[in-house]
Amino acid sequence: xxxxxxxxxxxxxxxxxxxxxxxxxxxxxxxxxxxxxxxxxxxxxxxxxxxxxxxxxxxxxxxxxxxxxxxxxxxxxxxxxxxxxxxxxxxxxxxxxxxxxxxxxxxxxxxxxxxxxxxxxxxxxxxxxxxxxxxxxxxxxxxxxxxxxxxxxxxxxxxxxxxxxxxxxxxxxxxxxxxxxxxxxxxxxxxxxxxxxxxxxxxxxxxxxxxxxxxxxxxxxxxxxxxxxxxxxxxxxxxxxxxxxxxxxxxxxxxxxxxxxxxxxxxxxxxxxxxxxxxxxxxxxxxxxxxxxxxxxxxxx
Length: 301
Fold this sequence. Notes:
Blueprint (H helix, E strand, L loop, with lengths): L1 H21 L5 E2 L1 H7 L5 E5 L3 H6 L6 E2 L6 E3 L5 E3 L2 H10 L7 E5 L7 H10 L5 E4 L2 H7 L28 E2 L1 H9 L6 E5 L3 H5 L14 E2 L6 E2 L5 E2 L2 H9 L9 E5 L4 H12 L5 E4 L2 H6 L13
Parallel strand pairs: 1-7, 2-3, 2-6, 6-7, 8-14, 9-10, 9-13, 13-14
Antiparallel strand pairs: 4-5, 11-12
Helix pairs in contact: 5-10
């Protein structure tokens, strides 16, 4: 009887872990959550720090996936995401299936982790989360680290439902149309670069921002004094409200110089519950190389 009870408890424990992974995962998880779930066979932890940092130390069990691996460069020097098919290959080579709960982190407050998060939402991967504060938060919580390289047996990644993926990307032509209709109610174009980049140089051509874009710097979403975690939702929502973004159903388009910083802002907005967020992947690099695209200098949108 006692043995039967133990077996039954083990069975329900296993089923509970499966069920918990079947529901859509939280966008952000903290270091404590990861510590509790790190040995769950349904969880795969991905470290998006560079390979040098990974070799120094990383979260135990994490596999390394560098930023450049999931991006390609055009002949014009514009950095763009790899194709969906290429991403499937990248994931499969690392032993990841569509059933896994992918948990991503980096050492820069989601700067690179946000990129993979965005791409995984594009292909409709159901369970994907980012560790709030990443490696810094993990270490500050006095958790153990490792310098042991982790590999997984390769599999074939078969997406469950690509059609269910988020429509979270926008091209240059559409951005141009959006810029021309910058006063449209409920649609916001956000520039997440530095103020100097946004304002532009008075003597230089093709500097400044896309007409109609409001300034919302990515770096200000992070609490640098507390381990690179995101600021609390109240503060972040207040910063958005100041530039007119108040409804979580508002259509938002993000850009930076290359799509890197804007990926972190995408992650931030998704963590706040915004559902209609798109990333201009080519960002200013592609915009500036496209004919007849206009820039605006100064602090006004």
